[in-house]
């Protein structure tokens, strides 16, 4: 693996780490399996790309992307809490609907940002080398998002969200509106995913309606890898572990793509298989460690 491949994997790990934090919020904290992220990631990319091509500052476009992602998550939350639709099915319905919504926003299946000023271009104009601009921007936003969500979970509302995920019946008896907590949590999760999608689009120079395929699998892989290696003793370690898990996942993918076994080489079409293998290893390793200790 070359240095540039490793640098690219680090950049992708950081920008997808923002998405992984959103997945962690629903998957671990709220105990809410949310497939909306497969639609909210391209939603954020679409909104940001359209805003930039309309002359809006690329950093301001991230706010629009976050709002759009929050609204998408809110729809899933409302379908689940108010209309009593199973959380998994509710998220699938929203994800399917977002496919058409994203095409409508972009007025087509994709939109290019060629010749447009992105957040990375602004950082480069400030004197940062182009090779490190992405890492700086994505690292800054990843740390900002992680810090903001850690702070939020220390607030009274954040503590209520943690309690709702652990025992919703108990927190309901204390007078907490669990429905609003779920709607807020799923909304915040998809807002982070949408910001990740917007940054990915600005980095790639285009937004595409299919760029969110497999987002939930990638996010879960990052979460599980991070938890397996770093654990989750407290919120700070947990979220840092998610970011590092995302980076390690991308590095593992880069190593796999650069590996050759005789006449056989790994291609991008094998990524889903590699991801599945990594998740299986991460899920089974704690059990194997426990068996070793018992023997």
Description:
With 295 residues, the chain is mainly alpha-helical. The chain has one domain (3-212). It has 12 helices and 4 strands. Strands 1-2 form a two-stranded antiparallel sheet. Strands 3-4 form a two-stranded antiparallel sheet. Strand 3 and strand 4 (264-265) form a beta hairpin. Helix 3 packs antiparallel against helix 9 (178-204). The protein is globular and about 55 Å long. The model has no long low-confidence stretch (mean pLDDT 91).
What's the layout of helices and strands?
Layout: H1 3-29, H2 37-53, H3 58-81, H4 87-106, E1 110-112, H5 119-125, H6 130-154, H7 156-166, H8 168-173, H9 178-204, E2 206-208, H10 215-230, H11 235-258, E3 260-261, E4 264-265, H12 271-294
Antiparallel strand pairs: 1-2, 3-4
Helix pairs in contact: 1-6, 1-9, 1-10, 1-11, 2-3, 2-4, 2-9, 3-4, 3-9, 5-6, 6-7, 6-11, 7-9, 10-11, 10-12
């Amino acid at each position: 693996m070359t240095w540039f491949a490793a640098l690219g994997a680090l950049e992708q790990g950081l920008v997808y780490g923002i998405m992984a934090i959103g997945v962690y919020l629903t998957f671990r904290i709220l105990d809410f399996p949310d497939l909306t992220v497969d639609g909210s990631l391209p939603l954020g990319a679409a909104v940001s790309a359209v805003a930039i091509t309309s002359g809006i500052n690329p950093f301001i476009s991230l706010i629009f992307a976050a709002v759009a992602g929050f609204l998408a998550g809110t729809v899933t939350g409302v379908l689940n809490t108010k209309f009593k639709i199973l959380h998994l099915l509710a998220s699938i319905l929203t994800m399917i609907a977002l496919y058409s919504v994203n095409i409508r926003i972009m007025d087509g299946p994709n939109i290019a940002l060629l010749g447009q000023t992105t957040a990375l271009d602004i950082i480069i104009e400030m004197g940062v080398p182009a090779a490190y601009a992405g890492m700086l921007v994505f690292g800054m936003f990843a740390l900002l998002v992680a810090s903001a969500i850690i702070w939020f979970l220390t607030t009274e509302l954040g503590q209520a969200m943690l309690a709702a995920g652990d025992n919703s019946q108990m927190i309901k008896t204390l007078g907490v509106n669990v429905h609003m907590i779920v709607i807020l949590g799923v909304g915040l999760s998809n807002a982070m995913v949408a910001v990740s999608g917007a940054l990915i689009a600005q980095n790639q120079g285009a937004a595409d309606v299919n760029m969110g395929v497999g987002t939930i699998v990638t996010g879960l892989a990052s979460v599980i890898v991070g938890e397996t290696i770093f654990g989750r003793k407290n919120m700070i370690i947990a979220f840092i572990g998610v970011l590092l898990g995302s980076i390690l996942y991308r590095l593992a993918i880069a190593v796999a793509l650069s590996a050759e076994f005789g006449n056989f080489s790994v291609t991008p079409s094998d990524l889903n298989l590699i991801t599945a293998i990594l998740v299986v290893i991460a899920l089974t390793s704690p059990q194997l460690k426990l068996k070793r200790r018992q023997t």
